[in-house]
Amino acid sequence: MVERETKVSVMMTFTGLLMLMELVVGLISHSLTLTADAFHMLSDTISLVVGLISIKISKRPADKSNSFGYQ
């Protein structure tokens, strides 16, 4: 089974690449719709980055202040 971290990384990569393509095509063609959607996808990419960071934090082992770990 594929790890959650890998799945989120792949989704983040594809979303980021599609965002860049939409932004470039939107700017070249002077399309406000494509440019606006590219910035909407930027917020999706940022959300995936936050999700990836939270997955990495949740893998930390338990310590004195968090006896059950960071689950």
Topology, pairings included?
Layout: H1 4-28, H2 32-58
Subcellular location: Membrane
Protein name: Cation efflux protein
Domain Cation efflux protein transmembrane: 11-71
Structure overview:
The chain crosses the membrane at residues 12-32. It is found in: Membrane. This protein has helices spanning 4-28, 32-58. The model has no long low-confidence stretch (mean pLDDT 90). It has 2 helices and no strands. Helices cover 73% and strands 0% of the residues. The protein starts with a helix and ends in a 13-residue tail after the last helix. The protein is mainly alpha-helical and 71 residues long. It has one domain. Helix 1 runs antiparallel to helix 2.
Task: Considering the chains and any ligands shown, give keywords for the structure.
membrane, zinc ion transmembrane transporter activity, 71 residues, Cation efflux protein, single chain, zinc, elongated, mainly alpha, transmembrane helix
Shape: elongated
Low-confidence stretches: none
Number of helices: 2
Number of domains: 1
Transmembrane segments: 12-32
Organism: Kipferlia bialata
Protein name: Cation efflux protein
Keywords: Membrane, Transmembrane, Transmembrane helix, Zinc
